[in-house]
TrEMBL record:
Residues 22-46 have a biased composition (Basic and acidic residues). Residues 21-53 are annotated as: Disordered. This is DUF4352 domain-containing protein. Keywords: Signal. Residues 1-18 form the signal peptide. The keyword Signal applies.
Length: 180
């Protein structure tokens, strides 16, 4: 009995190894085409845009960043007593349907090496785009990202995160440029 089990295990192992063997032929163009159709490049790659230019998603949702101003957060802010850049984000809903902003988020990176930056939460600044923006309407909020005075480059990533199907959320917009 043990010999039979051992023999069957050996045959199965050899079969698996043979099936996993390397193929000397390069992949056919047909298989590459099918693979790219299954995972479109646009879904994986963030979209790029200038920091001060409106970004428009394919469905008509638009985000515009304006009013960049360097400040220092208060001692009661999170994080407190930190140099940061404050800016306004205005979204315009051109999708033709109401958009829920509950999961709207931003992320920032600063400097030429793209250091991750904390979002600033202070009086009148941070996490202000919430609720619903109706079709054809706008919503505006002030945001801030920690940014040392020595850094000039700011990258803001905007993830609107709306929709009924979590697998088809709008892609993240990446806006970058220099701040005075």
């Amino acid at each position: 009995m043990k010999k039979t089990v051992l023999a069957v295990t050996a045959v199965l192992s050899l079969g698996l190894l043979a099936a996993c063997g390397a193929d000397d032929k390069p992949a056919s163009p047909k298989s590459d085409t099918n693979k790219s159709q299954d995972t479109p490049k646009d879904d994986k790659k963030p979209a790029g845009n200038a920091l001060d230019a409106p970004y428009k998603w394919e469905d008509g949702f638009v985000a515009t960043l304006t009013g960049f101003e360097r400040k220092k957060s208060s001692d009661t802010a999170s994080p407190g007593n930190t140099d940061y850049v404050e800016f306004t984000i205005q979204v315009e809903n051109g999708t033709g349907k109401d958009v829920e902003l509950t999961l709207f988020s931003i992320a920032c990176k600063t400097g030429t090496d793209g250091k991750a930056s904390e979002e600033i939460f202070d009086e009148g600044v941070g996490a202000q785009l919430t609720g619903t923006v109706q079709a054809g309407k706008k919503a505006t909020g002030k945001f801030g990202c920690a940014m040392p005075t020595s850094d000039k480059t700011l990258q803001v990533e905007i993830s609107p995160n709306y929709g009924d199907d979590i697998t088809k959320l709008p892609k993240t917009a990446v806006l970058s440029g220099d701040v005075k």
